[in-house]
Amino acid sequence: MVFGTFDILHPGHLFLLNEAKKIGDSLTVIIARDRTVQTVKNITSQNDEQTRLKNLQDLNIADKVMLGNPGDKYEVIRNENPDVIALGYDQTAFTEDLQKKFPNIKIVRLNPYKEDIYKSSKFRDK
Prior knowledge:
33% of the residues lie in helices and 15% in strands. The protein has 126 residues and is an alpha/beta fold. The chain has one domain (2-119): 3-Layer(aba) Sandwich (Rossmann fold). The protein starts with a strand and ends in a 17-residue tail after the last strand.
């Protein structure tokens, strides 16, 4: 399972998704809700949550793509019960006590892919 905004898809996202897919038998991607993006990143995504959902589905990398819960951010983890959660190298939101909250789920931090070039903030309109 991976989580993210996935607003402007770039090679760094593709790398993350493909690396996460290698870890397990299937890949579930959780897309951040528009309200969550606004609250956590203090930005409005360029693509709304339905567009971001469709864009991830169209990649045909993930076995399942779904929107996160706008309230309880951990509900999707409890419902889906993944064996592994793969985090991006710079992902911090809602990750601080993840291993303590879910001791039976393996948490891995993936390496970046050319983070000096492929970082979402570099693609965002200013």
